[in-house]
Structure formats: C-alpha cells, structure tokens
Amino acid sequence: MSLFRNDLNETLTKIEVSEIRQFDEATSSIPDILKLTLGEPDFTIPEHIQKVAKQAIDDNFSHYTGNAGIPELRQAAADFQNKKYGLHYKPENVITTVGASEAIAAALGTIINPGDGILLPAPIYSAYTPLINFYHGQEFRMNTRDNDFILTPEMIEDTIAANPKVNFKAIILNYPSNPTGVTYRPNDIEAIVKVCKQHQLWVVSDEIYSELTYGDPHTSIASYLPEQTILINGLSKSHAMTGWRIGFIFADVEMINEISKVHQYMVTAATSIVQKAAVEALTNGIDDGKKMAVEYLKRRDYVYSEMKEMGFEMARPDGAFYIFAKIPNGYLQDSMAFCKDLAQKNHLAIIPGHAFGDEGEGYVRISYAADLSKLHEAMKRLKTYMDSNK
User: So which residues are the signal peptide here (predicted)?
Assistant: First the structure.
C-alpha cells in the first residue's frame, strides 16, 4: 500500500512545475528537435575558473564554509558590484547562495507575511509566483505590454490604489528582463524609486543579466535605493556557470542578518569548491561576461532581423539573450498551440508566451543562447513554418 497521503502542504495545490520546463521536456522526444527553450548559455566556463576549481579539489577544500560564504568571496562579490555598478557594499552586505533561485526564495521567505501584497511587472519570469504563493503572499501583476514592457510609477500607484485593504510589502524587478530582454534606463529607475519610497516598498531586484547588456551599461536600482533594495545576482549568466549554482544577495546589514536565517536552514552554505572558483570569476574574470555579450549582440541582431521579416512584432532587446515576439495575425494565437504545432511540424522548440503569465499570451520567447549556425537553422525552420501556414 502506498504511504503517499493527500494531506500534504495545501499550498502545493497552487504550484505547478514551470511551463518552461514542461514544454522543454515535452519536446525533447521529437526527432531532430532544435531547442531554443532554456536560458542556458552555450559558452564554456572560462578555463582559468576551471583551473581554480580543480586546484580546490586537489587541496581538499571540501568542508563546510560559513553560512554566508567564505570571506574572500563575499569581499570579491562586494568589490565586483562596487566597481561595475557604482555601489557601496562591504562583505557583511553579502550572502553567497546556491544560485540566484535560492537567493530569491530566501529573500521572499524573509519579507512576506501571510496576505502581504507583492507587485510584479508582467509578463515576467515564472519562478516568482510559486514562491509568493508558497509563502502565502498575494501577487498583483501589472501588465506592461502596452508600454513596450516597461513598468511605470503610474502602474504601481494604480494597483495600490485599487486594493486599499492590502498591505503591499514589495515589488519584484527583473532587468534586463526574462522574457522580453528589455531593461530600465536611469530615468525609468528614478521614477520607480520615488513611488517605492513613498509606499515603503522593499525592492527585490533580480539583476542576474546585468553583465549582458547592449549599448548603455547596466544601472542597478540599489544605487538609488540601497536601504530598501534586496539585490540578487550570480554567475550563471555572466560566466556561463549555470550548473555550478552560485548566486548572491546584497542588502543592508540588518536585512542580511535576517535573510541569513532562512538561507542557513535551506542550504547551510554553497558548495565549498565552487566558492573558490567564484572568487576567480569575480576577480581575474571580472570582464568575462562582456566578452560573451559581444557574441550575444550579433545573435540578437540576426534573430531580430529575421523575425521582423517574417512579420513578428517585438521590443528590441537591450540585454539578456531572449526575444519576446508577438505571433502575427493569421496564425494560431494560442501560444501553446502555436509552439506545439511548430515543434511537431518543423522540429523547432521555442517557449509559449503564456509560460510568463496571461500577459504573455499571444507571444513566444526565443532564447538566442546558441551559436549562429543553430540560429540560422532555427530561422530557416521558423520561416518554413510561417510560409506554409499563411
């Protein structure tokens, strides 16, 4: 007899496996499938970082570290943010986490009380909503589609005014954005900061793509609102270290002390060997991400141009490695149906826009974290599909 019971944590009934992962796995069995689905850099981890990890193994650096990470890594992470983005962090402002995903979970677990309102510009990466639900918060999504996916202070004000009985606790930002690739300029950030100050909102700012920007350098909201910002970053995108699971939380010391409690009981500490490699990445590899960004820019320009010619409408991405495109009229407008049909008929897998909320319906996301030869083939398959389904 099965020991499985139906009286598990009832909050899990509101949580499902990410549609991104579901669709990626569902299309994997299609013969000759070409996948532009996951946010997975195709670059190899720089060799100098690998060497340090190997040395750490040889040195038997294999025991527990402090909960917040080894001191030299916390120092390196603070220095990186300060040098790159003009911030003023010290090691005591840093927690080393098991990827940015754990950082987000620990941060939200620290600030959310049951019933608290959490604001999200939408469409947005799908990981935040399940965590808000798990911690018994309420999400309030602000549709940014009509403003080229840029959040405005008015959207925040209108949402708060429409829900006067809700205790709004925080806003989650993710920029450069997954799925749209758009980012915020200093004037956009200044305007958002004013309303966050007025309503005393925590800002959980997921800036994991900060090193992958095109044109203007990244501006962190922490440079305008350090006392209310919980800044999330990591090495998955900037150094192609997705599987190594290293992220960081930066915040005021009092907030760091509280988040540390959640982090400690979630994971104890990040992997010791990878922490040594992360020091190398943030110091001698401080500009590794910018080298990758040069290649991503070429890919963005190619995919953007090709899809424009096919009739897709999209905001021009300023960062990350995604294009979020509106399905042209005359084709299946249900994004899941469109993507399934494309995968089955032309063996190209891209992500349905609905995976990023109702606000993403009618769109598709393409990850151009693939070499140009694959992108050429992908655009060929997409064009064949579009031409044959007019």
Answer: none
- C-beta of residue 323 within 8 angstroms of C-beta of residue 306: no
Residue with tokens 């993403």: 360
Give the DSSP per-residue string, 318-339. Answer: -BTTEEEEEPPTTS--SHHHHH
User: Three-state DSSP class for 8?
Assistant: coil
DSSP-assigned states of every residue in 135-169 = TT-EEEEEE-GGGTT---HHHHHHHHHT-TTS-EE
Query: CA 107, CA 109: separation in Å to the nearest integer?
Result: 5
For residue 4, the one-letter residue type is F
For residue 18, count other CB atoms closer than 10 A to its CB.
16
Cα separation of the two ends of the chain? 54
Domains of the chain: 10-44+288-388 (3.90.1150.10), 47-282 (3.40.640.10)
User: What is the secondary structure of 234-279 as a DSSP string?
Assistant: ESTTTSS-GGG--EEEE--HHHHHHHHHHHHHHHSS--HHHHHHHH
Quote the radius of gyration of the chain (alpha carbons, Å). 21
| pLDDT tens, position by position, 263-320 | 999 999 999 999 999 999 999 999 999 999 999 999 999 999 999 999 999 999 999 9
- Is the predicted pLDDT of residue 372 greater than 90, yes or no? yes
Q: Give the distance from CA 184 to its chain's centroid.
A: 15
pLDDT class for 215, splitting at 50, 70, 90?
A: confident
The DSSP call for residue 34 is E
User: Distance of alpha carbon 382 from its chain centroid, rounded?
Assistant: 26
DSSP code per residue over 37-61? -S----SPPPHHHHHHHHHHHHTT-
Q: Are 294 and 211 in contact (CB under 8 A)?
A: no
pTM of the full predicted structure?
0.96
